[in-house]
Amino acid sequence: MGWGAGGYGGWWGWLWVCSCSALSRTARPAFGRAVHLRLLDHAMAVWEQHFSAVANPTYIESVAGITQELDVRLPSEALAAIRERRDQANIAARYRKPIVSLQDSDLVLPEPAEFAYYAVYNAFCLHVAGRKIDPWTIVNQVLSAVGEEQAIPVLDAAVSG
Predict the structure, then answer these.
(1) In whole angstroms, what is the distance from residue 136 CA to residue 58 CA?
(2) Taking each helix axis from N to C terminus, what angle separates 74-84 and 33-50, rounded to the nearest 10 degrees?
(3) pLDDT tens across 18-54, in order?
(4) Domain-wise residue ranges, the chain
(5) Distance of alpha carbon 117 from alpha carbon 135, whole angstroms
(6) Would the pTM of this model clear 0.85, i.e. be above it?
(7) Which of 93, 119, 146 is nearest to 127 (CA)?
(8) What is the rounded end-to-end Cα distance, in angstroms, of the chain?
(9) Cβ distance 141 to 21 under 8 Å?
(10) What tens digit of pLDDT does each residue of 18-28 get?
(11) Quick one: CA torsion of 44, 50, 52, 58, rounded to 10 degrees?
């Protein structure tokens, strides 16, 4: 599962090295909205590699047994809402069922696409819905989505602007 479940020798140790590299070249130690937006562009590229705008993936909710269609445009619409700083397309309500289904394992996505999906969702929650989300969660999810080979260059580019 990705770069390890945790601990300083796994993913978190790698992230620490990566983030120290990127942060040593900038005076801004905190990841703000602008950095998140640059990172989310990479998450969207990963999402779009897995799902075209015309794809119609479906999943079955285990509790109700109802077949649902995944709205593959939702992440791009959420990113637009983040850029506009408002939810005019009912994004928050539209995320409810797929997020629950991901957590219940009713909806299974390729791992990079799942990380990209969660990155956009959490950024929406932080920057539009005003929920308390650790900004590093979004960074970690984007870096997991792009993969180990691209993570450092992606983070460096996002921080450098």
Answers:
(1) 31
(2) 160
(3) 454 444 444 344 568 999 999 999 999 999 999 987 7
(4) 11-160
(5) 15
(6) no
(7) 119
(8) 30
(9) no
(10) 454 444 444 34
(11) -110
